[in-house]
Amino acid sequence: PLTQLRYIFSETIALIVNMLMVFALGVTSLLFIVRIARLWMLLIMAPLAWASKILPSAGDHLGKWWKDFLNWSFFAPMYALCLYITLRIVQSDALANMLGQYSQNAVSALLSGNFDDFVTSAVSVYVGPFIYVMIVFVMLFGGLLISLKMAGEAGELIINQTKKASAWAVGAAGKTFKQRVGAPVLSKAGEAMIHA
What we know:
It contains five helices and no strands. By secondary structure, the chain is mainly alpha-helical. Helix 1 runs antiparallel to helix 2, helix 1 (2-54) packs parallel to helix 4 and helix 3 runs antiparallel to helix 4 (115-185).
């Protein structure tokens, strides 16, 4: 009976774990499909977004287009980074070693006759793998949410820095223009012509 109970418990945990992983990877796959469709749509609409910059009544559709384009462009690399970190943690065996220590504690408690420590360690042996997989699930799903947020912030950063660089370039060009073209006009002869 104890062996059957252990088997049922382990299979139930395995089923729950597999369902969670399928859910996390399914949501990720769905978002990657949405990403590709959205990028295609944005690239098709790019000429209209650029044309909206010319028309004063069209609003700032180009800015919205850039924000959306950069957000979906950076989503995949950000998620790849989160997935890499998750896989490195799983491959490091730090969590597995910690759970293995619980198994050794359970065996030593049983051999020493300390039933309370055995029950505590035995629960850790069965709950430990579940906690291990939940940590991996939280990292996968959390990585998905973090990558969506970080991709948006990376896009915002690029847009803001581009606006600053554009303002600096226009200011520098205007200053150079005033120095080279405007200086002769504002010379003594130019001022005499203006006041005449």
